[in-house]
Amino acid sequence: VSFWYRFVHRHRSRLEQGAVDEVWRAHVAPYLDDYMGQSVFEPMAEQAFRRHHAAWDLPAVREWSRWEGQDRNRRSIEIDVVAELDDGRILSGEVKWSSKPVDVGLHWRLLRDLDDLARSGEGWAAEALDEETSAGHIYVSAAGFTQRFRTLAGENGSIRLVSLEDLYID
Asked: Across-strand partners of 77?
């Protein structure tokens, strides 16, 4: 419904006249990444987690949220996934809608952000880094992951990579 009102409804007459390619190039494609980000793809990732957590060998989610704010140095930080699981552990991660595969730098940035937030007094961030209270880190990417990131995830059991195809495994 959101897509309909954002992209189709306002260009209905042009679409009916057959200007589909023109509407796509001028009014949909340039804005699709922004549209798909936080408002669409992040909720898709949450819904997929709720459906597939057992297959991914993780407990059910008690509370799923995102975190936006500043660390003690006033650096803006956004973390797409901050979830408390049924076993009390914290799952953190990022959800990216992009046209290029996500590289391992995303993981290092998340760890830096969690460390900065933990030093700023955010207890949940400290728990997300602690081996006993962390459920690891989940990364969801529509374009997949680089080989470097897949290699790191294969070597580190606390990293879970979820592609667009994984969201629809059933």
From this structure: 69
pTM score: 0.81
User: How far apart are the C-alpha atoms of 17 and 6, rounded to whole Å?
Assistant: 19
Q: Quick check: helix, strand or coil at residue 53?
A: coil
115-154 CB burial, b ≥16 within 10 A, e <16:
ebbbebebebbbbbbeeeebbbbbbbbbebbbeebeebbe
Q: Are 155 and 135 in contact (CB under 8 A)?
A: no
Residue 30, amino acid = P
- Pull the structure tokens for residue 13: 């007459």
| DSSP output for 82-146 | EEEETTS-EEEEEEE--SSPBPTHHHHHHHHHHHHHHHTT-HHHHHHHSTTTEEEEEEEETT-B-
* pLDDT tens digit at each of 170 positions of the chain: 777 888 889 899 989 998 899 988 888 877 766 666 556 788 888 998 998 899 888 999 999 999 999 999 999 999 999 999 999 999 999 999 887 899 999 999 999 999 999 999 999 999 999 999 999 999 999 889 999 999 999 999 999 999 888 877 66
